[in-house]
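re: ur question from earlier - yeah i can do the single chain one, its not a big deal. heres the input i used so u can compare w yours
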Amino acid sequence: MAKKKPRPGSVVRNKRATYDYALEESFIAGIVLTGPEIKSVRAGKASLGEAYCYVDPKDRPKIKGMHIAEFKNAGYVEQEPGRERELLLNKIEIKKIKSKIREKGYSLVPVELFISENGYAKLEIALGKGKKTVDKREDLKSKDIKKEISKYV
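and the output i got, formated as tokens:
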């Protein structure tokens, strides 16, 4: 998958996703957040580094390990920065994801957290196959070659 430019409302991008996985098919999912959490996301205080996605036995996609910092002016509302959050996808997409995940080597990887034009928080997730170290080295070599060529052109 080619390197994409960040969206205008892009808040957080998971750089390790493209390094560790060969991403094949991507989906845009809504994410269920509380009021203080969305304010923290808009301020850019979120992290996808340790996050991973899965589909629970009741066919609800979820993200675990995504850290959203506590919002200072939240008042009395209790905040849990690393809680499990539900993703909003339609049934057809969930069925497609579940069938691919059952295949050996596929994972559901969070790629980018952004704010849509309507002001909602959206999460781009992708089905990816884990890369081996040889593949990672190949990618680094090709990136270095492209850099060298662009210097002289």
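The mean pLDDT is 84. not sure if urs matches, ping me
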